[in-house]
Amino acid sequence: MTNTPSRTEKLEEYKLIREEINKEWDYISASRSILFATTAAVLAFAFSQSNPIVFLIPYVVIIPLSAIEKDHLTGIIRKGAYLLVFCEPYIDIEWERRLFQEDMADASANKIKKPVVSHFMLLTLCCLVLSVLYLDFSDLKEKSLWVDAGLIAVFTVLTVVIVLRNRVDYLEEKIVQKERWEEVKKKKSK
Question: What is the pLDDT of residue 47?
């Protein structure tokens, strides 16, 4: 015999998890603020330097923050799917269910598109453009020009690849997490 939780218990669980989701969004917002402030400070410093590689220093912030944001977004989606499967059927709140239905309807109408350009990609592009603009093209035979150009290319490609790997496909992740929680629910009910 399974012990069915009361509506009050499920509502309390819903509120606690919703609070966790809000904290995750706050963390993402704070991380983005750090990203933009750090990038702006480094770029301001880079303009006072004669080395174009200095414009690539923000990559050191962009890469880890893109991974951190991916983890938090995945956590938000996971918690939302949990609410959809384990809480909303027992309470009069259907936010996650309606959101999921709307997302599925948008997907079937091809309204949901994966964003190719994120704030991480825009900052990477900005750093790339500034570093290339700061290259000294006055002597194309100068070895340092080609070393700098090569370093810019390598670091930029690596950053773009890592940032793209850290991208979250919102709907795909939501479906996966919902299916996982439904599987857990089935196992629990046996």
Answer: 96
Amino acid sitting at position 71: D
Instruction: Read off the pLDDT of each residue in 24-40 and give the average, rounded to a whole number.
Output: 96
Distance CA 152, CA 46 (A): 14
Are the beta carbons of 144 and 51 closer than 8 angstroms? no
Distance CA 49, CA 153 (A): 20
User: What is the C-alpha separation between 159 and 170, in angstroms, rounded?
Assistant: 21
Hunting for tokens 């989701």 — which residue is that? 21
**pTM attached to this predicted model:** 0.86
Q: Note the pLDDT tens digit of each residue in 53-110.
A: 999 999 999 999 999 999 999 999 999 999 999 999 999 899 999 999 998 888 887 7
Q: 176 near 74, Cβ under 8 Å? A: no
- Note the residue count of the chain: 190
**Nearest Cα to 80, choosing from 26, 121, 22, 36?**
22
Residue 41 per-residue DSSP state: H
- Where does the pLDDT of residue 1 fall: very low under 50, low under 70, confident under 90, or very high at 90 and above? very low
- Comparing CA positions, the residue from 97, 113, 93, 94 lying closest to residue 171 is 113
Give CA–CA dist 168/47, Å, rounded.
33
CA distance 178 to 175: 5
